Amino acid sequence: xxxxxxxxxxxxxxxxxxxxxxxxxxxxxxxxxxxxxxxxxxxxxxxxxxxxxxxxxxxxxxxxxxxxxxxxxxxxxxxxxxxxxxxxxxxxxxxxxxxxxxxx
Length: 104
Known about the structure:
Blueprint: H1 3-102
């Protein structure tokens, strides 16, 4: 082989090595960029999920307060109804008790 041919082969090998190293560097850069972008997307997704959770918790708490108020109102109505029924029967109960005490 002539020296020129050897020099051409050496130059081609050096060029191939340089291109290989450039490609590896570019691949590392692309990988790093993708990882950074991925981390950013994950962080954004986490923030979005946390925000949604907070919103859902507030909505659930508000709905819970509404249900509690409705239940309290219903129970209060039931209590008033029972009290009214008890008051209606109070005179009869007093009469029965008085009759038993007096008739002893």
